[in-house]
Amino acid sequence: MANKSYPYIFIHGMLGFGQDEKVNDFLPYWGMLAGDICQMIRDNGGEAYAPTISSLGSAWDRACEIYAQLVGGTVDYGEAHSKKYGHARYGRTYDKPLVPNWSAENKIHILGHSFGGATVRMVSHLLAHGAPEEVAATGADTSPFFTGGKGDWLQSVTTVAGPHDGTTVIYAIGPLLPILKCITFFGFAGVMDNTPLGKFYDMSLDQWGITSDPRKGYKVTNMLKVPNMIKAMTTKDNLYWDLCLAGARELNERFEINEKAYNFSISTSNSMLTPKGNHRMKASSFVPFWLTGNLVGSCRHDKSIDEDLDPSWLESDGCSNTVSALHPSDEPFEYFYDNDCKAKRGIWNVMPVYQGDHMDVVGGSLRAFLTPYYVMNYYKNHINILENLD
Known about the structure:
The strands form 5 sheets. The chain has a 7-stranded parallel beta sheet with strand order 2-1-5-6-7-14-13. It has helices spanning 23-26, 37-43, 59-71, 79-85, 116-129, 132-138, 169-172, 176-191, 226-234, 239-243, 245-254, 287-296, 322-326, 366-370, 372-387, and strands at 8-11, 48-49, 73-76, 90-94, 108-113, 154-160, 262-266, 268-269, 271-273, 279-281, 301-302, 307-308, 333-335, 348-350, 354-355. Helix 3 (59-71) packs across helix 5 (116-129). The chain has a single domain (8-387), classed as Rossmann fold (3-Layer(aba) Sandwich). The radius of gyration is 20 Å and the shape is globular. It is an alpha/beta fold. The two termini are 17 Å apart.
């Protein structure tokens, strides 16, 4: 595996974790049972980081958290954005930048799994095009992240099992959705993040005032902020909204492709067609995906947009619809291997569909445990592609 000078930034998905959380020490999110992909890059002389960001935050909030960690300083969620959704403008402070001197001359590669896909697209969009509403709201006090003109700070963007057009699983699970929201916001964020367990697994929702920064200790009294938890849970400024088809449409209306970066998308599939024309998950899938994937595989109407769906939406990896993860439906694309493996800037270079479920693609499966080289070699090959870009 070749290696050049550009660092690799790996962004986790929903309920994921990063390098600052203890769980990542023995179960790295990127690699899991197959090994540690970041360490693999370091062992070959490169730089790799997996920032800890909100596990339930919106693509916007998570992108702001990534930027602050890369350049150092305090997370700025933007004056206009924060007022619109009713949370604090500023978040955690990072004294040491992960990538000193990050610039057009010192680019990065950024990869996002699952909802990390929408997150890295937001990073790419804001770097390239900025946020005019934030400039209008704060003028000279605007974060450089919102001023645009930095599209060339990214060498490449890669989405892995990222549902660009949203996922039907959000509403396909029906009555399980409010239960899941309550468990994650009240249990994980409200309780776990305000005890010593926050150092083990950090939900990082400080902007809502419901979690504690584990670097500064914990505040048990945050558990009493039930109205804040309800607000964070019911707003459109969280990942549950951004992941549904209606929320993804809103994101896509905002997103403009970064024409100065190479954009890659890796879709995933582990379902098969049934005689009735639905899809059911393969037996090799992670057990919870037998439920979610089978619900997706029979979901022909999405509640969030109140529209019937094309049958292509039935194939999935258990969480992401395969067709949605191929590429954004409203942006230019080419299939990488149909183009003689010549990547282009300013379009989506669509990779072949990865045959595995939603977590297998990051090493979270029995197959990854039994044959770890399958996952590790996959990333070695993709990194080789990125290393050989112009």
